Amino acid sequence: SERTLDTPAQATFRILPKMTKHEVKEYLTKIYGLPVVKVRTQNYMGKRIRVMGKTHIAYGKRPDFKKAFVTFDNTLADTGMGANIPGITDKTE
C-alpha cells in the first residue's frame, strides 16, 4: 500500500484470515530468515457481487481476507527491500 512505501523496511502481505500475528512473524523468520520487528493485521470483508443471468440474478460474495503489515529490522532498508529476499516475487509487473 502507499503507506508502506514511506517506510523502506516495511512490507504488506495478503494472508489467510485464520493466521495470527505470531504465526506470520514465525513464518517469515523461520522460512526466509527475515528480522521481523512488528506485525500489524487488518481484516477485510469480501466484496458483494451480483451475476446477471438470462432468467434470474444471482447474488454472492467474494471471500474474506486479511492483510499483514510487517515491519522489518532497519538492516533490510539498506539492501533495497525485496531485492535480496529469496522466494518473494513482485506482483506489480
Give me the secondary-structure topology:
Blueprint: H1 2-6, E1 10-15, H2 21-32, E2 36-44, E3 48-52, E4 57-61, E5 65-72
Antiparallel strand pairs: 1-5, 2-5, 3-4
InterPro entries: Nucleotide-bd_a/b_plait_sf (IPR012677), Ribosomal_uL23-like (IPR013025), Ribosomal_uL23/eL15/eS24_sf (IPR012678)
Keywords: Ribonucleoprotein, Ribosomal protein
Organism: Thalassiosira oceanica (Marine diatom)
Radius of gyration: 17 Å
Overall tally of domains: 1
- Strand % is 35-45%
What's the CATH C level? Alpha Beta
CATH topology: Alpha-Beta Plaits
Residues in helices, as a percent range = 10-25%
Mean pLDDT: 80
Shape: elongated
**What is the name of the CATH architecture?**
2-Layer Sandwich
Multimeric status of the protein: single chain
Major sheet characteristics: 3 strands, antiparallel
CATH superfamily: RRM (RNA recognition motif) domain
- Beta strands, count: 5
Q: SS-based structural class?
A: alpha+beta
Total helical segments: 2
How would you concisely characterize the structure shown here?
With 93 residues, the protein is α+β, with helices and mostly antiparallel strands. It contains two helices and five strands; from the N terminus they run H-E-H-E-E-E-E.
Q: Can you give keywords for this protein?
A:
93 residues, alpha+beta, Alpha-Beta Plaits, 3-stranded antiparallel beta sheet
Walkthrough of the structure:
With 93 residues, the protein is α+β, with helices and mostly antiparallel strands. It has one domain (2-78): Alpha-Beta Plaits. Helices cover 18% and strands 35% of the residues. The protein has helices at residues 2-6, 21-32, and strands spanning 10-15, 36-44, 48-52, 57-61, 65-72. Strands 1-5-2 form a three-stranded antiparallel β-sheet, with helices on one face. Strand 3 and strand 4 form a beta hairpin. The two termini are 15 Å apart.
